[in-house]
Prior knowledge:
The protein is mostly beta strands. It has a 22-stranded antiparallel beta barrel. The chain has a five-stranded mixed β-sheet with strand order 10-15-16-13-14. It has a four-stranded antiparallel β-sheet with strand order 3-2-5-6, with no helix packed on it. The longest helix has 17 residues, at 2-18. It starts with a helix and ends with a strand.
Amino acid sequence: MKKLIFILTLIFSVGLTAQEIKVSGVVRDDAKGTLPAASVLVKDTSNGTTTDADGKYSIMAKIGDILQFSYVGLETKSIKVTGSTVNIVLAESGVALQDVVILGSRSSARTVTESAVPIDVISMKDIASQGPQVNLNQILNMVAPSFTSNTTTVADGTDHIDPAQLRGLGPDQVLVLVNGKRRHTSSLVNINGSPGRGSVGTDLNSIPAFAIDRIEVLRDGASAQYGSDAIAGVININVKKDTNKFDIALFGGSNFSKNANDHRGGNDGNNAQIDMNYGTSLGKEKSFINATASFQLRGQTSRAKDVTGGLFSAFNAIEQRGFEDGTNINELWGNIGNTPNSAQIVTAIHTYAPQVGYFSPEQQTSILNANTIGAMQTALNFDATEGELAYRKLERRNFNMKVGQSSLESAQFFLNGAYPINENLEVYAFGGTSHRTGQAAGFYRKPNQSRAYTALYPNGFLPEIHSTINDISAAAGLRGMLFKTWNFDLSNTYGKNSFDYNIENTLNATLREDSPTEFDAGGLAFSQNTTNFDISRKFDKLNVAFGSEYRHENFQIIAGVPDSYNQYDINGNVASGIPSESNLLPTDFYGATRPGGAQVFPGFRPANAIDNGRNSVALYTDLEYDVTEKWLLNGALRFENYSDFGNTTNYKLASRYKLTDNINLRGAVSTGFRAPSLHQIYFNSTSTLFTNGVPSEVGTFSNDSQVAKLLGIPQLKQEESQSASIGFTAKIPEARLTLTADAYIVRINDRVVLTDQFVANTPELVTLFNQAGANKAGFFANAIDTESKGIDIVISHKANVGNGLTLKTDLSGTISSTKRVGSIHASQILEDAGQINSYYSESSRVYLQEAVPRVKANLTNSITVNKFDFFLRNVYFGQVTDPNTGDANGDGTVDTAVINGQTVNVEHPIWGAKVITDLSVGYKFTESAKIVIGANNLFDVYPDENLESLKSGNQFTYSRNVSQFGQNGRFLFARLSFSF
């Protein structure tokens, strides 16, 4: 009987062994994270598969077969099949784990050290957990040395959308992709004093950082591969694909700084945020949907000191006594030189002046003896600030500006999903929406100024720009296999960004008592729709890719309400502007004309309103060939046609050669282009711009305007670039080190800049300006050629010491320079008038060449010990130069130089290099709960203090035009995370 059972068991076992079964499981790393795209192969067969986004796999195999698991940078492991479930953990090999990328190539994925061009890979998993930064711009500013972005202050719309730069080039010279698809740019044009002036960048902060899996930064020109804007490089944002997981993070923090609350200490800039991410399968293998929601409340910071200078005039003191008695002296006139009520005005002043107890006897006598408006203006021509502050029980700090970060309320959502229709076809979609409202302020309108109206605001007012920024994006596509061997991807991507201005706590001074205090000042909108068809196939060692793209763009300026931009006369009619009717313009008591429009930001006029678009069509091809096992060669060619300026063709050649298994040489040469944005072509506005604190109403005219044509400003055309890079990568397995170093040079011709204001300084220009109906005019123009050089170095080390201890260290740095080369491409008319320096001024030179750190380095250390992790980051920000001039060296003079035949001030303050330290400590209560506490700018470091001559009444303690890392000081935070 026993023999029979043995024989039957043997027969059954043999049959089972010969029969294939479905084997499935999960592949993880030794940190218990799942490994997507890990290779699973039945040894000695061609039967294989890869893991999905959750590290899961399934494969048909026999009992007794050997499954071989591999992943780049991890040890390959072989396991014998003994049942239907095989879970596996892959440990690190002797070499630190290398990130796998597809950016910069349309071939199969490669590690960053084996790619032909330099690429940084930033994993958001640890950064989102350990770091103090919560928005994408600031995260990248702290972790990527070649990336620069900082919040600005008192810069109109730029207070709300931060311009960002890569390799020291412009915000509009870096292309942003999401999941490999082109992202639309912002609707905002940076026209005020900040780095990136005149450019249009991508609003990275409209993408919730919690939705991001990782970021790839290609530090090489790539227009031949990806099209316009990719002169400096490409930032590709990969969105999360996790399934069967719910993550939530609660974040809170504040600036606990010695200079908080206008240098009184304490804390300000409170920041609270909640992020949620959930992913689930859609019921089919490799299907998923992943959703993120993010909500943020951020308070303002204040870094002014108590205002200096005059605030109240003698007339302000007298009118206040009238207000208290129910009399509004201001309503007795519209234009002080054209009023029938002169006697009443003088009588009212005689009545209330004696009630001002701090006027001296001499001043009271002078007032009493003044019996005409002219004589009274002379008698009241003295400052009454100190006495009036005491009388009204006010302090100078009540008149401070809001200098610091703007306040913000934000709600953001993002969705990413895919569903396989069959083995060869998959449909995918992703997109998001962002709604943000911000509040920033301008210059304080003091009671003694004509742009204030004390009958509405007795103590003056601080006008506020309230922004509403809406951003929406949606992409959908179909990808898979054609004819069994060709990979294809057909997609459509739409995006729109709008920026609406609402001006509050303000007035139109020419409307006086009848002025609203809030205005809809209009807004901006930009939309983009891109359709792509990409196809590729690998022929042994040759990968062939080609495709096409159609893109439509639209830019709009929406007019504000009439009261936001009109100047009215004393009869309530729109001012004619005729010199003979100047006596109908409203004035203050001293005769200064009151400005029209909403104070701080006059609205866009109907004449400014535009709705213009364009189309572009592109064809490209991309070849990548493994010439030998050591030599990789890549080439790309792209033709693009724009409906508004014509054709452009660009190429790229890149190569990598393996000197040894651990050392690679690489290099690339390419041409590139950037189409002038629709914003730069069509933007026009009458705005309040400030030069050294002095306001002026000026016009920024569109490039296609009549005045541009009359003054000889050429139609905008594309910027064209030539770039080259060379570098090497190395791995030292015994030391668990990787090293990359890459040098580059980029030459850009016909770079678009925003000029300074041109004026009518010759009879010919007077005629031309009058013919165009303009006073002063600035334009966007292809004015200069530039050359940028630099070197980027990245060193990484990671090791598992054992006993739950993991060490990771990253050291990276960049050194770069940018300068103008050749002559300025000026209009002959304006050059003959001696205004070539307004084309590309000394301040424009500084913004381009020296306003962002040209030396920047980052040293990040993280240690994980069982349930604890420690994070330490030091970022070195090199010196920057302020575009303003002054006596920086203290010798009593401002240095000058002769530039283009004119004497120009060239002595600029230089703000010294600083090191910013971030520190955090994390503790895992359980596998699903973690708390992190820490600090950004642990040692409360601030930029160098501003020159006295540039502080604008003690308001700008630090420069408002440039800053390496902002001026908020120490930020303390706590983050509580849960994962289910």
